[in-house]
Amino acid sequence: MGFNEKERAFIEWYPRGYGVGFKVKERLFETQTQYQRLELYETEGFGKLLVLDGTVQLVEVGEESYHEPLVHPVMLAHPNPRRVLIIGGGDGGTLREVLRHETVERATMVEIDEMVMEVSKLYLNVARGAFEDPRAEVIVGDGVKYLRETEEHFDVIIVDSTDPVGPAKLLFSEEFYRSAYEKLNEKGLYITQAGSVYLFTNELLDAYRAMKRVFDRVYYFSFPVIGYASPWSFLVGVKGDVDFTRIDMERAKKLELYYYDPERHETLFQMPKYVRDLLEGTQ
Predict the structure, then answer these.
(1) Which long-range contacts (CB under 8 A, 24 or more apart) does 221-224 make?
(2) Please, are residues 189 and 202 in contact by the beta-carbon 8 Å criterion?
(3) How far apart are CA 131 and CA 235, in angstroms?
(4) How does pLDDT run across 50-89, given as a tens digit for each residue?
(5) Is it true that the peptide bond before 231 is cis, omega within 30 degrees of 0?
(6) Does residue 214 have a pLDDT over 60?
(7) Is the pTM of this model over 0.90?
(8) Cβ(193)–Cβ(183) under 8 Å?
(9) How much is the pLDDT for 25?
(10) pLDDT of residue 147
(11) What per-residue confidence (pLDDT) applies to 165?
(12) Residues tagged active-site
């Protein structure tokens, strides 16, 4: 796993020998932060590549293929998303997309690794001013602890974490989902990325099962993300009377999107048949 000097390539190896790779011009930066190993590369065709603990986080060209489906479906399905919490997302892409919604009064982002934010601000063209937006509140801290202890309540909670294995596993626990449910307003939506449909199927099933024990309704969907072992899965938890299958097209028309298509919202729910059968079979 990682940078191959001879081949001038970075390859992330997934389970069962499946790899996703980029041809690399040079390694720009490398450091061991307090929490993880951070690497930054210049790729041949996709701009800069951000890597944490050997796993691809994003490439500049195409990062919207992850941030748009993570943010806009829940924001447009909620009738009036004014207060939003983002856990993780140190590169600023999720915060940027949230702040594109005029209804947002405050977006609170809790990122545990300050170095990720600093490197992203210095090297990556992703946040595009989001950190400086007066509606943004950026907190360096543990998202699990923050959610457990905060007195605030939110309309939408977005978890932009690393893969559902290793250190991020707490973010996929029933206890964490209960904290999120309690901190959602009467009408609220929660979304998390949940890994590769084909290669993290068991982790997806575990997370879906745990969320079903907590939220009023749970939806799953997938999206092809550049740089990941696609299709990539997402899970949505609903609190109260919110229909995630319907979105506000008037608000959607104000957004210029490249990847997520609000007019074809229903296509999000396409899932390979055997995975859908597994999900629908969970209790």
Answers:
(1) 221/69, 221/73, 221/268, 221/269, 221/270, 221/271, 222/197, 222/268, 222/270, 222/271, 223/65, 223/66, 223/69, 223/259, 223/260, 223/268, 224/65
(2) no
(3) 26
(4) 999 999 999 999 999 999 999 999 999 999 999 999 999 9
(5) yes
(6) yes
(7) yes
(8) no
(9) 96
(10) 95
(11) 62
(12) 160
DSSP 69: H
Helix (H) or strand (E) segment spanning residue 24: strand 19-32
pLDDT exceeds 80 at position 230? yes
* Residue at 244: amino acid letter: F
126-74-36 Cα angle (round to 5):
45
Contact assessment for residue 76 and residue 262, using Cβ atoms and an 8 Å cutoff:
yes
Residue 273 to residues 38, 108, 218, 276, 279: CA-CA distances in angstroms?
Answer: 37, 37, 18, 5, 10
Structure tokens at 57: 């986080």
Which tokens is 67 given? 């941030």
Residue 87: in which H helix or E strand, if any?
strand 83-88
Q: Tally the residues of the chain.
A: 283
Q: Which of 168, 156, 236, 245 is nearest to 200 (CA)?
A: 168
Q: Say which residue the tokens 């000097």 belong to.
A: 5
Average pLDDT over residues 120-131: 96
For residue 43, which phi and psi values (nearest 5 degrees)?
-90, 170
What DSSP designation does 134 have?
A: T
